[in-house]
Amino acid sequence: MRKVISNKLSFNISATRTLRSINSLVLFLSLATAYYIDIISALGIATSSFYVIAFIAIKDSESLVLPFLIALLISLFIVIGPFLSPVKLGIHSVFFNLSLTIIISWMMASLFHFKKIRKLKMNEIDQTLKSESKHIPEEPQNEVSI
């Protein structure tokens, strides 16, 4: 029995590592692709939807800080991007699109952060209930027949 459990655990650990590697690769490629598309597209054209893929890649991460690091990186890309992009639209629409992308990325980071905190609190409550339920003595149930 113990050997089966260790095999299951080792499989889960290797599967988890593989999943983390794939998520890291997707995160890197999505940020690189989004930044490249942001640079080659005309300034003021909204390409922020490509940055959303980075947040999707980290949705299962256990880190509470990682969403904010991704939002910071996206914000830096957004700020640096206009200096490398060709200018096509008016400056007002450019600043609106860039500001909107930065705001959305920080909102997504906050949502992921609070979702993870809520999940941690629910796990803590679940563990507390499980430990408390072990201390409750079982009472015999009376059967009621009609």
From TrEMBL:
Chain ranges passing through the membrane: 34-57, 64-84, 90-112
Keywords tagged on the record: Membrane, Transmembrane, Transmembrane helix
Keyword Transmembrane in record: yes
Superkingdom in the source lineage: Bacteria
Protein name stated in the entry: Uncharacterized protein
